[in-house]
## 1
Amino acid sequence: MLTDDPDVPNFGEIEINFASELERRETNTLTIPIVDFNYGIFPNVQFSIESGYIWEKSQHDFGATEVAVKYNFYSNDIVSLALYPHYIFYANDSLFKESNSWEIMLPMSFKLSKKLTLVSSLTYIKPTKEQNHVEFGSYLEYEKSRDSYYVEGYWEEEPQTKDRVLINLGYLHRFHDGLAFIGSVGYEVQSSQKRATLGYLGLQVSF
Protein backbone atom coordinates (compact mmCIF):
# COMPACT_ATOMS: atom_id res chain seq x y z
CA MET A 1 0.00 0.00 0.00
CA LEU A 2 1.19 3.54 -0.76
CA THR A 3 -0.71 4.87 2.25
CA ASP A 4 1.34 4.50 5.43
CA ASP A 5 -0.12 3.45 8.77
CA PRO A 6 0.90 4.93 12.15
CA ASP A 7 2.05 1.59 13.62
CA VAL A 8 5.68 1.18 14.73
CA PRO A 9 7.68 -1.86 15.89
CA ASN A 10 8.03 -2.48 19.61
CA PHE A 11 11.11 -1.06 21.31
CA GLY A 12 14.09 -3.19 20.22
CA GLU A 13 12.11 -5.03 17.52
CA ILE A 14 13.38 -5.29 13.92
CA GLU A 15 11.05 -5.47 10.91
CA ILE A 16 12.40 -6.02 7.38
CA ASN A 17 10.39 -6.02 4.16
CA PHE A 18 11.87 -7.74 1.09
CA ALA A 19 9.88 -6.90 -2.02
CA SER A 20 9.63 -6.36 -5.77
CA GLU A 21 7.55 -3.85 -7.73
CA LEU A 22 6.58 -3.78 -11.40
CA GLU A 23 5.24 -0.70 -13.22
CA ARG A 24 3.82 -1.38 -16.68
CA ARG A 25 3.70 1.74 -18.87
CA GLU A 26 5.26 2.52 -22.30
CA THR A 27 8.47 1.27 -20.70
CA ASN A 28 8.19 -1.43 -18.04
CA THR A 29 10.12 -0.72 -14.85
CA LEU A 30 11.02 -3.47 -12.38
CA THR A 31 12.41 -2.66 -8.94
CA ILE A 32 13.99 -5.71 -7.32
CA PRO A 33 15.11 -6.14 -4.67
CA ILE A 34 13.48 -3.54 -2.46
CA VAL A 35 14.75 -3.69 1.13
CA ASP A 36 12.89 -1.75 3.82
CA PHE A 37 14.53 -1.93 7.28
CA ASN A 38 12.64 -0.72 10.36
CA TYR A 39 13.82 -0.69 13.98
CA GLY A 40 12.11 0.33 17.22
CA ILE A 41 14.80 2.68 18.56
CA PHE A 42 12.63 3.97 21.44
CA PRO A 43 9.12 3.22 22.71
CA ASN A 44 6.71 4.42 19.98
CA VAL A 45 9.60 5.53 17.72
CA GLN A 46 10.75 3.77 14.55
CA PHE A 47 13.87 4.36 12.47
CA SER A 48 13.62 3.31 8.79
CA ILE A 49 15.89 3.04 5.78
CA GLU A 50 14.72 1.78 2.37
CA SER A 51 16.25 1.41 -1.08
CA GLY A 52 15.70 -0.56 -4.27
CA TYR A 53 17.49 -1.61 -7.44
CA ILE A 54 15.77 -0.54 -10.70
CA TRP A 55 15.74 -2.42 -14.01
CA GLU A 56 14.46 -0.56 -17.09
CA LYS A 57 15.11 -1.75 -20.66
CA SER A 58 18.88 -2.37 -20.83
CA GLN A 59 19.63 -0.02 -17.91
CA HIS A 60 19.84 -0.87 -14.23
CA ASP A 61 21.02 0.99 -11.15
CA PHE A 62 20.06 1.90 -7.58
CA GLY A 63 17.06 4.17 -7.18
CA ALA A 64 16.23 6.44 -4.27
CA THR A 65 17.30 5.85 -0.68
CA GLU A 66 14.80 6.88 1.97
CA VAL A 67 15.71 7.60 5.60
CA ALA A 68 12.90 8.27 8.07
CA VAL A 69 11.79 8.39 11.70
CA LYS A 70 8.18 7.65 12.68
CA TYR A 71 6.81 8.79 16.05
CA ASN A 72 3.46 7.36 17.15
CA PHE A 73 2.47 10.20 19.46
CA TYR A 74 -1.13 9.17 20.21
CA SER A 75 -2.83 5.78 20.35
CA ASN A 76 -5.89 4.24 21.99
CA ASP A 77 -8.31 1.42 21.11
CA ILE A 78 -9.92 3.46 18.30
CA VAL A 79 -7.55 6.16 17.03
CA SER A 80 -3.80 6.16 16.33
CA LEU A 81 -1.71 9.10 15.04
CA ALA A 82 1.95 9.46 14.04
CA LEU A 83 4.42 11.98 12.65
CA TYR A 84 6.69 10.58 9.93
CA PRO A 85 9.42 12.84 8.42
CA HIS A 86 11.49 11.42 5.51
CA TYR A 87 14.56 12.43 3.56
CA ILE A 88 14.81 10.91 0.06
CA PHE A 89 18.04 11.13 -1.91
CA TYR A 90 19.87 9.63 -4.89
CA ALA A 91 23.51 8.80 -5.54
CA ASN A 92 25.06 11.52 -7.71
CA ASP A 93 25.81 9.06 -10.51
CA SER A 94 22.50 7.15 -10.41
CA LEU A 95 20.95 6.56 -13.85
CA PHE A 96 17.53 7.19 -12.31
CA LYS A 97 18.41 10.29 -10.32
CA GLU A 98 15.55 12.68 -9.54
CA SER A 99 15.29 15.64 -7.20
CA ASN A 100 16.15 14.91 -3.56
CA SER A 101 13.27 15.80 -1.24
CA TRP A 102 12.05 16.25 2.31
CA GLU A 103 8.66 14.80 3.18
CA ILE A 104 6.46 15.21 6.24
CA MET A 105 3.73 12.59 6.59
CA LEU A 106 0.85 12.36 9.07
CA PRO A 107 -0.39 8.74 9.15
CA MET A 108 -3.61 8.00 11.05
CA SER A 109 -5.85 5.00 11.65
CA PHE A 110 -9.42 4.63 12.89
CA LYS A 111 -10.85 1.34 14.17
CA LEU A 112 -14.37 1.21 12.65
CA SER A 113 -15.26 -2.25 13.96
CA LYS A 114 -13.59 -5.41 15.27
CA LYS A 115 -12.48 -6.38 11.74
CA LEU A 116 -12.53 -3.10 9.80
CA THR A 117 -9.93 -0.30 9.99
CA LEU A 118 -9.62 2.94 8.02
CA VAL A 119 -6.03 4.14 7.47
CA SER A 120 -5.14 7.51 5.92
CA SER A 121 -1.97 9.53 5.41
CA LEU A 122 -1.38 13.12 4.31
CA THR A 123 2.09 14.02 2.98
CA TYR A 124 3.72 17.37 2.25
CA ILE A 125 6.66 17.04 -0.16
CA LYS A 126 9.43 19.65 -0.57
CA PRO A 127 11.80 18.71 -3.42
CA THR A 128 15.12 20.54 -3.76
CA LYS A 129 14.58 21.42 -7.45
CA GLU A 130 10.84 21.16 -8.09
CA GLN A 131 7.61 22.68 -6.85
CA ASN A 132 6.27 21.67 -3.43
CA HIS A 133 3.18 19.45 -3.53
CA VAL A 134 0.98 17.14 -1.45
CA GLU A 135 -0.24 13.55 -1.55
CA PHE A 136 -3.16 11.87 0.22
CA GLY A 137 -3.96 8.19 0.50
CA SER A 138 -6.56 6.12 2.31
CA TYR A 139 -7.41 2.44 2.52
CA LEU A 140 -9.89 0.14 4.22
CA GLU A 141 -8.49 -3.00 5.82
CA TYR A 142 -10.68 -6.02 6.51
CA GLU A 143 -8.96 -8.46 8.84
CA LYS A 144 -10.04 -12.08 9.17
CA SER A 145 -7.90 -14.46 11.24
CA ARG A 146 -4.42 -14.45 9.60
CA ASP A 147 -5.56 -12.65 6.43
CA SER A 148 -6.09 -8.96 5.66
CA TYR A 149 -7.73 -7.47 2.54
CA TYR A 150 -7.23 -3.87 1.38
CA VAL A 151 -8.92 -1.37 -0.93
CA GLU A 152 -6.94 1.86 -1.42
CA GLY A 153 -7.33 5.18 -3.18
CA TYR A 154 -4.27 7.44 -3.60
CA TRP A 155 -4.07 10.98 -4.94
CA GLU A 156 -0.83 12.76 -5.86
CA GLU A 157 -0.76 16.45 -6.79
CA GLU A 158 1.22 17.03 -9.99
CA PRO A 159 2.08 20.74 -10.30
CA GLN A 160 1.36 22.13 -13.80
CA THR A 161 0.09 18.74 -15.10
CA LYS A 162 -2.81 16.37 -14.48
CA ASP A 163 -2.91 14.96 -10.92
CA ARG A 164 -2.21 11.25 -10.47
CA VAL A 165 -4.97 9.04 -9.03
CA LEU A 166 -4.41 5.37 -8.24
CA ILE A 167 -6.70 2.54 -7.12
CA ASN A 168 -5.04 -0.41 -5.32
CA LEU A 169 -6.19 -3.84 -4.12
CA GLY A 170 -4.00 -5.61 -1.56
CA TYR A 171 -3.71 -8.85 0.41
CA LEU A 172 -1.63 -9.89 3.43
CA HIS A 173 -1.27 -13.36 4.91
CA ARG A 174 0.43 -13.93 8.27
CA PHE A 175 2.20 -17.29 8.38
CA HIS A 176 2.98 -16.59 12.05
CA ASP A 177 3.78 -13.55 14.21
CA GLY A 178 7.18 -12.97 12.59
CA LEU A 179 6.48 -13.69 8.90
CA ALA A 180 3.89 -12.37 6.45
CA PHE A 181 3.29 -12.31 2.68
CA ILE A 182 2.12 -9.04 1.07
CA GLY A 183 0.81 -8.51 -2.46
CA SER A 184 -1.06 -5.78 -4.31
CA VAL A 185 -2.12 -4.71 -7.77
CA GLY A 186 -3.02 -1.17 -8.79
CA TYR A 187 -4.16 0.91 -11.75
CA GLU A 188 -3.82 4.62 -12.48
CA VAL A 189 -7.28 5.97 -13.23
CA GLN A 190 -5.78 9.40 -13.96
CA SER A 191 -2.23 10.37 -14.92
CA SER A 192 -0.31 12.94 -16.98
CA GLN A 193 1.39 9.97 -18.71
CA LYS A 194 -0.01 6.79 -20.22
CA ARG A 195 -1.90 5.06 -17.41
CA ALA A 196 0.13 2.41 -15.63
CA THR A 197 -0.63 -0.92 -14.00
CA LEU A 198 1.42 -1.65 -10.89
CA GLY A 199 2.15 -4.85 -9.00
CA TYR A 200 3.90 -5.47 -5.67
CA LEU A 201 5.01 -8.71 -3.97
CA GLY A 202 6.91 -8.96 -0.70
CA LEU A 203 7.75 -10.76 2.52
CA GLN A 204 7.71 -9.08 5.94
CA VAL A 205 10.03 -10.52 8.61
CA SER A 206 10.08 -9.30 12.22
CA PHE A 207 12.05 -10.40 15.27
## 2
Amino acid sequence: MQKPGKIFSDNWNFFLGYFLFLFLCIITFSFSSKTGSFIWLNFYHNKMLDWFFIVYTNVGDGLFAIAIFLLLLLLRRPLPGWEIVFTFLLSGLIAQIVKNIFPMPRPKTLLGDSGYSHFIDGVTHVGNASFPSGHSATAFGVALILSLFEKNKKRSMLYFFAAVLVGYSRVYLGQHFVQDVFFGSIIGVVSALIVYITIDNKPIWLRKMKAREMQYQSTNNSKIN
Protein backbone atom coordinates (compact mmCIF):
# COMPACT_ATOMS: atom_id res chain seq x y z
CA MET A 1 0.00 0.00 0.00
CA GLN A 2 1.38 3.40 -1.00
CA LYS A 3 1.73 5.94 1.78
CA PRO A 4 -0.12 9.24 1.23
CA GLY A 5 3.20 11.11 1.27
CA LYS A 6 4.49 9.08 -1.66
CA ILE A 7 1.26 9.59 -3.60
CA PHE A 8 1.63 13.36 -3.20
CA SER A 9 5.35 13.41 -3.99
CA ASP A 10 4.98 11.22 -7.09
CA ASN A 11 2.15 13.41 -8.38
CA TRP A 12 3.30 16.83 -7.17
CA ASN A 13 2.46 18.45 -10.54
CA PHE A 14 -1.22 17.74 -10.15
CA PHE A 15 -1.42 18.53 -6.43
CA LEU A 16 0.56 21.76 -6.75
CA GLY A 17 -1.87 22.97 -9.40
CA TYR A 18 -4.83 21.77 -7.35
CA PHE A 19 -3.77 23.47 -4.12
CA LEU A 20 -3.17 26.68 -6.08
CA PHE A 21 -6.69 26.32 -7.52
CA LEU A 22 -8.14 25.91 -4.02
CA PHE A 23 -6.20 28.96 -2.80
CA LEU A 24 -7.49 31.12 -5.66
CA CYS A 25 -11.05 29.95 -4.99
CA ILE A 26 -10.71 30.84 -1.30
CA ILE A 27 -9.35 34.29 -2.20
CA THR A 28 -12.22 34.78 -4.66
CA PHE A 29 -15.06 34.08 -2.28
CA SER A 30 -13.29 35.56 0.76
CA PHE A 31 -13.15 39.03 -0.79
CA SER A 32 -16.43 38.88 -2.67
CA SER A 33 -19.96 37.74 -1.98
CA LYS A 34 -21.32 34.55 -3.51
CA THR A 35 -23.27 36.48 -6.13
CA GLY A 36 -20.51 39.05 -6.56
CA SER A 37 -17.87 36.46 -7.46
CA PHE A 38 -20.36 34.73 -9.77
CA ILE A 39 -21.03 37.94 -11.71
CA TRP A 40 -17.34 38.91 -11.72
CA LEU A 41 -16.30 35.55 -13.23
CA ASN A 42 -19.00 35.92 -15.87
CA PHE A 43 -17.90 39.34 -17.07
CA TYR A 44 -17.79 38.25 -20.73
CA HIS A 45 -20.14 36.07 -22.78
CA ASN A 46 -20.59 35.45 -26.49
CA LYS A 47 -22.33 32.84 -28.65
CA MET A 48 -19.12 30.96 -29.44
CA LEU A 49 -18.21 30.56 -25.78
CA ASP A 50 -21.80 29.63 -24.96
CA TRP A 51 -21.66 26.81 -27.51
CA PHE A 52 -18.20 25.66 -26.37
CA PHE A 53 -19.09 25.43 -22.68
CA ILE A 54 -22.49 23.84 -23.36
CA VAL A 55 -20.61 21.01 -25.07
CA TYR A 56 -17.50 20.93 -22.89
CA THR A 57 -19.31 20.81 -19.56
CA ASN A 58 -20.27 17.21 -20.43
CA VAL A 59 -16.68 16.21 -19.65
CA GLY A 60 -17.90 16.30 -16.05
CA ASP A 61 -20.91 14.11 -16.80
CA GLY A 62 -21.11 10.52 -15.63
CA LEU A 63 -21.53 9.30 -19.20
CA PHE A 64 -18.12 10.75 -20.06
CA ALA A 65 -16.59 8.88 -17.13
CA ILE A 66 -18.17 5.67 -18.38
CA ALA A 67 -16.83 6.38 -21.88
CA ILE A 68 -13.30 6.69 -20.47
CA PHE A 69 -13.83 3.43 -18.59
CA LEU A 70 -14.83 1.63 -21.80
CA LEU A 71 -11.88 3.13 -23.67
CA LEU A 72 -9.47 1.92 -20.99
CA LEU A 73 -11.00 -1.56 -21.20
CA LEU A 74 -10.35 -1.57 -24.95
CA LEU A 75 -6.77 -0.49 -24.26
CA ARG A 76 -6.40 -3.42 -21.81
CA ARG A 77 -6.06 -1.09 -18.84
CA PRO A 78 -8.95 -2.23 -16.64
CA LEU A 79 -7.55 -1.15 -13.27
CA PRO A 80 -7.62 2.64 -13.83
CA GLY A 81 -10.91 2.15 -15.66
CA TRP A 82 -12.57 0.51 -12.67
CA GLU A 83 -11.09 3.08 -10.31
CA ILE A 84 -12.67 5.82 -12.42
CA VAL A 85 -16.05 4.05 -12.15
CA PHE A 86 -15.74 3.64 -8.38
CA THR A 87 -14.61 7.26 -8.00
CA PHE A 88 -17.56 8.48 -10.05
CA LEU A 89 -20.01 6.41 -7.98
CA LEU A 90 -18.54 7.45 -4.62
CA SER A 91 -18.24 11.15 -5.46
CA GLY A 92 -21.72 11.15 -6.99
CA LEU A 93 -23.21 9.52 -3.90
CA ILE A 94 -21.51 12.01 -1.56
CA ALA A 95 -22.55 14.97 -3.73
CA GLN A 96 -26.19 13.86 -3.80
CA ILE A 97 -26.25 13.33 -0.03
CA VAL A 98 -24.82 16.80 0.56
CA LYS A 99 -27.27 18.35 -1.93
CA ASN A 100 -30.17 16.89 0.04
CA ILE A 101 -28.79 17.84 3.46
CA PHE A 102 -27.82 21.39 2.43
CA PRO A 103 -30.25 22.55 -0.29
CA MET A 104 -29.00 25.82 -1.74
CA PRO A 105 -30.46 27.86 -4.61
CA ARG A 106 -28.83 27.84 -8.02
CA PRO A 107 -27.70 31.21 -9.41
CA LYS A 108 -30.83 31.77 -11.49
CA THR A 109 -33.08 31.01 -8.53
CA LEU A 110 -31.15 33.39 -6.31
CA LEU A 111 -30.48 36.21 -8.77
CA GLY A 112 -33.40 36.01 -11.18
CA ASP A 113 -33.29 37.39 -14.71
CA SER A 114 -33.22 40.95 -13.45
CA GLY A 115 -30.03 40.46 -11.43
CA TYR A 116 -27.96 38.87 -14.19
CA SER A 117 -28.32 38.99 -17.97
CA HIS A 118 -26.24 36.04 -19.22
CA PHE A 119 -28.38 33.07 -18.26
CA ILE A 120 -28.72 30.75 -21.26
CA ASP A 121 -32.23 29.64 -22.21
CA GLY A 122 -32.67 25.87 -22.16
CA VAL A 123 -29.36 25.33 -20.34
CA THR A 124 -29.46 27.21 -17.06
CA HIS A 125 -31.29 25.35 -14.32
CA VAL A 126 -33.32 26.63 -11.41
CA GLY A 127 -34.00 24.97 -8.08
CA ASN A 128 -32.09 24.30 -4.87
CA ALA A 129 -29.49 21.72 -5.92
CA SER A 130 -26.59 24.11 -6.39
CA PHE A 131 -24.29 22.85 -3.63
CA PRO A 132 -21.99 21.09 -4.39
CA SER A 133 -21.21 20.78 -8.11
CA GLY A 134 -21.53 17.13 -9.14
CA HIS A 135 -19.88 17.76 -12.50
CA SER A 136 -16.86 19.26 -10.74
CA ALA A 137 -16.67 16.28 -8.40
CA THR A 138 -16.65 13.86 -11.33
CA ALA A 139 -14.18 15.90 -13.38
CA PHE A 140 -11.62 16.31 -10.60
CA GLY A 141 -12.00 12.72 -9.45
CA VAL A 142 -11.45 11.32 -12.95
CA ALA A 143 -8.57 13.75 -13.57
CA LEU A 144 -6.78 12.61 -10.41
CA ILE A 145 -7.18 8.90 -11.19
CA LEU A 146 -5.79 9.45 -14.69
CA SER A 147 -2.90 11.43 -13.20
CA LEU A 148 -2.11 8.75 -10.64
CA PHE A 149 -1.77 6.15 -13.40
CA GLU A 150 0.00 8.45 -15.84
CA LYS A 151 3.68 7.57 -16.30
CA ASN A 152 4.48 10.91 -17.93
CA LYS A 153 3.64 13.19 -15.00
CA LYS A 154 3.82 16.29 -17.17
CA ARG A 155 0.53 15.17 -18.70
CA SER A 156 -1.05 15.37 -15.26
CA MET A 157 -1.40 19.11 -15.72
CA LEU A 158 -3.51 18.52 -18.83
CA TYR A 159 -5.93 16.43 -16.77
CA PHE A 160 -5.90 19.08 -14.06
CA PHE A 161 -6.65 21.97 -16.43
CA ALA A 162 -9.37 19.91 -18.12
CA ALA A 163 -11.06 19.53 -14.71
CA VAL A 164 -10.65 23.23 -13.88
CA LEU A 165 -12.28 24.12 -17.19
CA VAL A 166 -15.24 21.90 -16.32
CA GLY A 167 -15.54 23.74 -13.01
CA TYR A 168 -15.50 27.11 -14.76
CA SER A 169 -18.06 25.87 -17.31
CA ARG A 170 -20.50 25.28 -14.43
CA VAL A 171 -20.13 28.91 -13.36
CA TYR A 172 -20.20 30.24 -16.93
CA LEU A 173 -23.41 28.35 -17.72
CA GLY A 174 -25.07 29.74 -14.60
CA GLN A 175 -25.44 26.34 -12.95
CA HIS A 176 -23.23 26.89 -9.90
CA PHE A 177 -21.39 29.39 -7.74
CA VAL A 178 -17.63 29.28 -7.10
CA GLN A 179 -18.24 27.72 -3.68
CA ASP A 180 -20.13 24.84 -5.31
CA VAL A 181 -17.23 24.11 -7.65
CA PHE A 182 -14.72 24.44 -4.79
CA PHE A 183 -16.41 21.85 -2.58
CA GLY A 184 -17.33 19.65 -5.55
CA SER A 185 -13.65 19.44 -6.49
CA ILE A 186 -12.73 18.45 -2.93
CA ILE A 187 -15.33 15.68 -2.98
CA GLY A 188 -13.92 14.41 -6.28
CA VAL A 189 -10.27 14.48 -5.18
CA VAL A 190 -10.96 12.89 -1.80
CA SER A 191 -13.11 10.20 -3.43
CA ALA A 192 -10.35 9.42 -5.93
CA LEU A 193 -7.77 9.12 -3.14
CA ILE A 194 -10.05 6.84 -1.10
CA VAL A 195 -10.63 4.59 -4.10
CA TYR A 196 -6.97 4.55 -5.14
CA ILE A 197 -5.63 3.82 -1.64
CA THR A 198 -8.34 1.21 -0.92
CA ILE A 199 -7.79 -0.67 -4.16
CA ASP A 200 -4.03 -0.45 -3.64
CA ASN A 201 -4.58 -2.93 -0.78
CA LYS A 202 -5.21 -5.34 -3.67
CA PRO A 203 -8.08 -7.71 -2.95
CA ILE A 204 -7.63 -11.03 -4.76
CA TRP A 205 -9.70 -10.11 -7.83
CA LEU A 206 -7.76 -6.85 -8.22
CA ARG A 207 -4.43 -8.65 -7.92
CA LYS A 208 -5.43 -10.84 -10.82
CA MET A 209 -6.54 -7.79 -12.82
CA LYS A 210 -3.27 -6.01 -12.08
CA ALA A 211 -1.26 -9.12 -13.01
CA ARG A 212 -3.07 -9.42 -16.36
CA GLU A 213 -2.49 -5.73 -17.09
CA MET A 214 1.24 -6.01 -16.28
CA GLN A 215 1.51 -9.16 -18.41
CA TYR A 216 -0.16 -7.40 -21.34
CA GLN A 217 2.17 -4.40 -21.02
CA SER A 218 5.20 -6.70 -20.77
CA THR A 219 4.13 -8.56 -23.93
CA ASN A 220 3.72 -5.28 -25.82
CA ASN A 221 7.13 -4.07 -24.68
CA SER A 222 8.72 -7.34 -25.83
CA LYS A 223 7.15 -6.96 -29.28
CA ILE A 224 8.45 -3.40 -29.55
CA ASN A 225 11.96 -4.43 -28.52
## 3
Amino acid sequence: MKQNSVPILSLKNIVTFVNQKTPSETMILKHLNLDVFDGDFITVLGSNGAGKSTLFNTIAGTLPPSSGQILHAGSDITGDSVEKRSRFLGRVFQDPKLGTAPRMTVAENLLLATKRGQRRTLALRQLKQNMPAFKQATVSMNNGLSERLNTATENLSGGQRQALSFLMATLRRLMSCFLMNIPLLWILIQVLN
Protein backbone atom coordinates (compact mmCIF):
# COMPACT_ATOMS: atom_id res chain seq x y z
CA MET A 1 0.00 0.00 0.00
CA LYS A 2 1.31 3.44 -0.93
CA GLN A 3 1.58 5.91 1.91
CA ASN A 4 -0.25 9.27 1.81
CA SER A 5 -2.04 8.36 -1.38
CA VAL A 6 -5.74 8.08 -2.18
CA PRO A 7 -6.53 5.06 -4.35
CA ILE A 8 -7.86 5.88 -7.82
CA LEU A 9 -10.31 3.02 -7.37
CA SER A 10 -11.54 1.33 -4.20
CA LEU A 11 -13.97 -1.50 -3.75
CA LYS A 12 -15.22 -1.74 -0.18
CA ASN A 13 -16.95 -4.92 0.95
CA ILE A 14 -18.57 -5.48 -2.48
CA VAL A 15 -21.20 -8.18 -2.79
CA THR A 16 -22.63 -8.90 -6.24
CA PHE A 17 -25.25 -11.47 -7.18
CA VAL A 18 -26.19 -12.74 -10.62
CA ASN A 19 -29.60 -14.12 -11.61
CA GLN A 20 -31.19 -12.33 -8.67
CA LYS A 21 -34.66 -13.42 -7.57
CA THR A 22 -34.43 -16.63 -9.60
CA PRO A 23 -33.74 -20.22 -8.50
CA SER A 24 -30.19 -19.85 -9.90
CA GLU A 25 -29.34 -16.75 -7.86
CA THR A 26 -25.63 -16.87 -7.04
CA MET A 27 -23.33 -14.60 -5.05
CA ILE A 28 -20.29 -14.09 -7.28
CA LEU A 29 -18.40 -11.31 -5.51
CA LYS A 30 -18.27 -12.07 -1.81
CA HIS A 31 -17.30 -9.09 0.35
CA LEU A 32 -14.53 -8.04 -2.03
CA ASN A 33 -12.10 -5.32 -0.95
CA LEU A 34 -9.58 -3.84 -3.38
CA ASP A 35 -7.55 -0.64 -3.61
CA VAL A 36 -5.99 0.39 -6.93
CA PHE A 37 -3.38 3.16 -6.85
CA ASP A 38 -2.06 5.34 -9.65
CA GLY A 39 0.43 3.31 -11.68
CA ASP A 40 -0.82 -0.09 -10.50
CA PHE A 41 -1.14 -2.83 -13.10
CA ILE A 42 -3.38 -5.56 -11.76
CA THR A 43 -4.14 -8.85 -13.47
CA VAL A 44 -7.21 -10.82 -12.49
CA LEU A 45 -6.87 -14.52 -13.26
CA GLY A 46 -9.48 -17.23 -12.93
CA SER A 47 -11.22 -20.04 -14.71
CA ASN A 48 -14.50 -19.62 -16.59
CA GLY A 49 -17.22 -18.58 -14.19
CA ALA A 50 -14.79 -17.36 -11.51
CA GLY A 51 -16.24 -13.82 -11.57
CA LYS A 52 -13.77 -11.82 -13.68
CA SER A 53 -16.46 -10.38 -15.98
CA THR A 54 -18.78 -9.85 -13.00
CA LEU A 55 -16.04 -7.84 -11.31
CA PHE A 56 -15.52 -5.68 -14.42
CA ASN A 57 -19.28 -5.22 -14.91
CA THR A 58 -19.63 -4.16 -11.27
CA ILE A 59 -16.79 -1.63 -11.57
CA ALA A 60 -18.14 -0.31 -14.88
CA GLY A 61 -21.67 0.06 -13.49
CA THR A 62 -23.48 -2.40 -15.77
CA LEU A 63 -24.09 -4.73 -12.84
CA PRO A 64 -24.74 -2.88 -9.58
CA PRO A 65 -23.42 -4.41 -6.38
CA SER A 66 -25.98 -5.72 -3.91
CA SER A 67 -23.99 -4.09 -1.13
CA GLY A 68 -20.71 -2.33 -0.59
CA GLN A 69 -19.19 0.82 -1.97
CA ILE A 70 -17.14 1.76 -5.04
CA LEU A 71 -14.97 4.85 -4.80
CA HIS A 72 -13.10 6.75 -7.53
CA ALA A 73 -10.40 9.05 -6.14
CA GLY A 74 -12.24 9.03 -2.82
CA SER A 75 -15.69 9.89 -4.25
CA ASP A 76 -18.54 7.40 -4.00
CA ILE A 77 -19.57 6.26 -7.50
CA THR A 78 -21.57 3.19 -6.44
CA GLY A 79 -24.82 4.62 -7.83
CA ASP A 80 -23.30 6.40 -10.85
CA SER A 81 -24.35 5.41 -14.35
CA VAL A 82 -22.12 3.68 -16.91
CA GLU A 83 -22.07 6.95 -18.88
CA LYS A 84 -20.87 8.97 -15.91
CA ARG A 85 -18.15 6.43 -15.14
CA SER A 86 -16.94 6.56 -18.77
CA ARG A 87 -15.34 9.94 -17.95
CA PHE A 88 -12.54 8.13 -16.12
CA LEU A 89 -12.98 4.47 -17.07
CA GLY A 90 -11.90 2.87 -20.34
CA ARG A 91 -12.98 -0.66 -21.16
CA VAL A 92 -12.11 -3.39 -23.64
CA PHE A 93 -14.61 -6.24 -23.73
CA GLN A 94 -13.96 -9.95 -24.05
CA ASP A 95 -16.24 -10.09 -27.11
CA PRO A 96 -14.65 -8.09 -29.96
CA LYS A 97 -18.14 -7.14 -31.18
CA LEU A 98 -18.84 -5.15 -28.01
CA GLY A 99 -17.44 -1.69 -27.46
CA THR A 100 -17.62 -0.60 -31.10
CA ALA A 101 -20.45 0.55 -33.37
CA PRO A 102 -20.57 -2.03 -36.18
CA ARG A 103 -22.15 0.12 -38.89
CA MET A 104 -19.83 3.05 -38.28
CA THR A 105 -16.39 3.19 -39.87
CA VAL A 106 -13.16 2.78 -37.94
CA ALA A 107 -12.63 6.56 -38.11
CA GLU A 108 -16.17 7.28 -36.93
CA ASN A 109 -15.70 4.92 -33.96
CA LEU A 110 -12.44 6.69 -33.07
CA LEU A 111 -14.16 10.09 -33.36
CA LEU A 112 -16.86 8.86 -31.01
CA ALA A 113 -14.14 7.81 -28.55
CA THR A 114 -12.67 11.33 -28.55
CA LYS A 115 -15.99 12.54 -27.13
CA ARG A 116 -16.07 9.99 -24.27
CA GLY A 117 -17.24 11.53 -21.03
CA GLN A 118 -18.06 14.87 -22.64
CA ARG A 119 -21.41 16.57 -23.00
CA ARG A 120 -22.52 16.26 -26.60
CA THR A 121 -24.42 18.78 -28.66
CA LEU A 122 -25.45 19.04 -32.28
CA ALA A 123 -22.35 20.09 -34.18
CA LEU A 124 -20.43 19.17 -37.30
CA ARG A 125 -18.46 16.04 -36.57
CA GLN A 126 -15.10 17.24 -38.00
CA LEU A 127 -14.09 13.76 -39.13
CA LYS A 128 -11.72 14.93 -41.89
CA GLN A 129 -9.72 17.11 -39.49
CA ASN A 130 -9.12 14.10 -37.23
CA MET A 131 -8.08 11.62 -39.94
CA PRO A 132 -4.30 12.28 -39.66
CA ALA A 133 -4.38 11.64 -35.89
CA PHE A 134 -6.48 8.51 -36.39
CA LYS A 135 -4.08 7.26 -39.06
CA GLN A 136 -1.13 7.78 -36.70
CA ALA A 137 -2.90 6.02 -33.81
CA THR A 138 -3.91 3.01 -35.91
CA VAL A 139 -0.47 2.60 -37.50
CA SER A 140 0.87 1.80 -34.02
CA MET A 141 -1.32 -1.32 -33.91
CA ASN A 142 0.63 -2.83 -36.82
CA ASN A 143 -2.34 -4.94 -38.02
CA GLY A 144 -3.63 -3.16 -41.14
CA LEU A 145 -6.18 -1.07 -39.23
CA SER A 146 -4.60 2.15 -40.53
CA GLU A 147 -5.58 1.15 -44.08
CA ARG A 148 -9.20 0.53 -43.07
CA LEU A 149 -10.20 3.88 -41.53
CA ASN A 150 -13.17 4.13 -43.93
CA THR A 151 -14.26 0.51 -43.43
CA ALA A 152 -17.34 -0.33 -41.40
CA THR A 153 -16.26 -1.93 -38.14
CA GLU A 154 -18.50 -4.94 -38.78
CA ASN A 155 -16.20 -5.83 -41.71
CA LEU A 156 -13.03 -6.04 -39.60
CA SER A 157 -11.43 -9.20 -38.30
CA GLY A 158 -11.91 -10.02 -34.62
CA GLY A 159 -8.32 -8.99 -33.85
CA GLN A 160 -8.74 -5.68 -35.65
CA ARG A 161 -11.96 -5.01 -33.76
CA GLN A 162 -10.28 -5.69 -30.43
CA ALA A 163 -7.38 -3.44 -31.44
CA LEU A 164 -9.91 -0.72 -32.34
CA SER A 165 -11.69 -1.23 -29.02
CA PHE A 166 -8.35 -0.87 -27.22
CA LEU A 167 -7.56 2.35 -29.11
CA MET A 168 -11.01 3.72 -28.32
CA ALA A 169 -10.55 2.98 -24.61
CA THR A 170 -7.13 4.67 -24.48
CA LEU A 171 -7.46 7.42 -27.09
CA ARG A 172 -8.22 10.33 -24.76
CA ARG A 173 -5.56 9.26 -22.23
CA LEU A 174 -7.54 11.01 -19.51
CA MET A 175 -8.79 7.73 -18.15
CA SER A 176 -7.50 6.84 -14.73
CA CYS A 177 -8.68 3.24 -14.97
CA PHE A 178 -8.79 0.64 -17.74
CA LEU A 179 -10.68 -2.64 -17.62
CA MET A 180 -9.47 -5.16 -20.19
CA ASN A 181 -11.38 -8.42 -20.21
CA ILE A 182 -9.26 -10.18 -22.83
CA PRO A 183 -5.74 -11.51 -23.20
CA LEU A 184 -4.13 -8.32 -24.51
CA LEU A 185 -0.46 -9.18 -24.34
CA TRP A 186 0.02 -8.85 -28.12
CA ILE A 187 -1.70 -5.45 -28.20
CA LEU A 188 0.32 -4.15 -25.25
CA ILE A 189 3.54 -5.34 -26.86
CA GLN A 190 2.65 -3.49 -30.08
CA VAL A 191 1.79 -0.28 -28.22
CA LEU A 192 4.85 -0.39 -25.97
CA ASN A 193 7.13 -0.92 -28.97
